[in-house]
Amino acid sequence: MRVALELIKSGDAQACVSAGNTGALMGLAKLVVKPLDGIERPALMSVLPNQQRSKTVVLDLGANVECDSTMLVQFAVMGAVMAEQVVGIPNPRVALLNIGEEESKGLDNIREAAAILKNTALINYIGYLEGNDLLTGKTDVMVCDGFVGNVTLKTMEGVIRMFLSLLKSSGEGGKKAWWLKWLGRIVQKKLLKRFSHLNPDQYNGACLLGLRGIVIKSHGGANQRAFAVAIEQAVQAVQRQVPQRIAARLEAVLPKSD
Questions:
Q1: What whole-number distance in Å separates Cα of residue 67 and Cα of residue 75?
Q2: What would the pLDDT profile of 99-128 be if each residue is shown by its tens digit?
Q3: I need a labelling partner for 48 at 20 to 30 A (CA). Which of 95, 105, 177, 229 fits?
C-alpha cells in the first residue's frame, strides 16, 4: 500500500485500488497523499443503487467512527461533488442520516451540521432521512458518521445477498410437477434479472474522498468481478478530476460556513 501511494504522490500513478486493511490504508493515505486543504479527515464513500433506478452517494462508511458537525458538513460537500461529477446528477439533494425526520431529533453534532447546511447556498440540503430511506431514492447524497455508515452498509449487503440467494435456491428440493418446475425457473430468471442491479459486487469499492489523489478501498473478499468494478470507479474518478473539483467546491463553500 505504501509503494502504491508513493507512486500517486510522485505522479507515476493516478489512482490506487487496495483490498488491504482499511485503517492502514487510511493512515498511510493521510500521511503520503495528504488531505485537501479544509478537510480534517477523508471519508469512505460508495455509490449505491436505489429504487428509482438511479444511484445514491453514501458517506462516511467507516473511516471515521466519531465525527463532529464540521466533518459532516465537509462530507456533504464532497458527496455533492461526487453525485454531480460521477453519477451525473445536477444540483444533488443532500440529507443527513438520523433516527427521525423531525428537527429536534438526533445527536448534537447532527443538529449542528444541519444548521450549517441549511445556510449553505451551494448545497441542496433537504433535511434528515431515516435508514429505511437509504435505497428509496429520496436523496442523492446520504451523510453520516463512519460507525453508523459501516453498520448500515454491511447490514444492507447481508440482507441483499440473502435475498438473492433465496431467489437462486427457490424451487429446489421436493417433488413438483414438471410444469411447476418449468414455471418456477422462468419466474426465478425474471426476478434475478429484475433485482440483479442490487448485487453488492456491482458497487464494490469505496473512494477515500478528501485526499489530493484518488484512493479506492475494495472489499478484502472481493471476487474478480467486484474488484474490476473498484478499478472502473478509480478510472472514472481520474477522468472526472474528482480531487480538483472537490477542492474548488470546498474553497467556495467552507469559508462561508466557518
A1: 10
A2: 999 988 999 999 999 999 999 888 999 999
A3: 105
